[in-house]
Automatic annotation (TrEMBL):
Annotated SUPFAM superfamilies: Ferritin-like
Lineage: Bacteria, Pseudomonadati, Pseudomonadota, Betaproteobacteria, Burkholderiales
Protein name per the record: Ferritin-like domain-containing protein
InterPro entries (UniProt xref): DUF892_YciF-like, Ferritin-like, Ferritin-like_SF
Domain of life: Bacteria
Pfam families tied to this protein: DUF892
Length: 170
């Protein structure tokens, strides 16, 4: 069975939509739990707003290709994000592990949007290519921010955890 370029593009856009649903849940969970790392919290909340916009943009691409978002994939992504958040809550170093996981997830998104751009270009879908390129830049910016701030988050955690009476976890 042969799958044409547009079918693959549509399937991958549905995957990207589910990925953004997962990102939304992860960002909300992290931002809601962080109390002692205001710069990290603010950046997560800012990227959450970008993520909500990305969901709408990807969904518009899906609809333009006469598709609809996959409810099963979206629900699975949300459940996965919930499980990840719940698992992280039990870790004494949750803020550091969450920041590392966030950086890794941003790089997954970068890879996915890079592939989507190539597929959209191959399909001759300049609107999807434009949208995915814009989203890619947002993901690259968040990835760079996370990488640049990991040392600070780590240092702040270590200082807080070594100081009696200071909460360090989140």
């Amino acid at each position: 069975m042969t799958t044409d370029v547009n079918e693959n593009l549509l399937a991958w856009l549905k995957d990207a939509h589910a990925m953004e649903q997962q990102a939304e849940q992860m960002l909300k969970a992290q931002a809601n739990r962080i109390d002692h790392y205001p710069e990290l919290k603010a950046r997560l909340e800012s990227h959450l707003q970008e993520t909500l916009g990305q969901q709408q943009q990807v969904e518009a691409c899906i609809k333009r290709l006469n598709g609809s978002a996959s409810l099963l994939k979206d629900m699975t992504a949300r459940m996965t994000a919930f499980a990840q958040a719940a698992g992280g809550m039990t870790q004494h170093d949750e803020v550091v592990k969450g920041a590392i996981a966030g950086y890794v997830f941003e790089n997954l998104e970068i890879a996915c949007y890079t592939s989507l751009i190539a597929a959209a270009r191959e399909a001759g879908d300049s609107e999807t290519e434009r949208i995915c390129s814009a989203i890619l830049e947002q993901e690259k910016a968040m990835s760079s921010w996370m990488l640049n701030h990991l040392p600070t988050v780590t240092r702040d955690f270590l200082v807080r955890s070594a100081t009696p009476g200071q909460a360090a976890k989140v």
